[in-house]
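In this supplementary section we document a worked example of the pipeline. Step one takes a protein sequence of length 71 as its only input; no multiple sequence alignment statistics are reported here. Step two produces a three-dimensional model, which step three serialises into structure tokens for compact storage. The input and output of this example are shown verbatim.
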Amino acid sequence: MESEYKKMPAISVDYAISEREKNFYVVAGDFFWTDIGDWREVWANSKKDNKSNVIISGDEPGGEVMTFDTS
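The serialised model returned by step three reads:
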């Protein structure tokens, strides 16, 4: 996984998705928020196992995974 991670472009999530997408909505909400701009922030703000791994799956509560074709 480390070798694949190193191949990823060094671009923040807001540039990679938000600033390129023309068809999305923003909804106001009263909840905790932190700006997740890169994979380090995803890791820092996610639940970790006993080996400090973060696993996000659709099988656990709150583990919905959304993917977008940004090509």
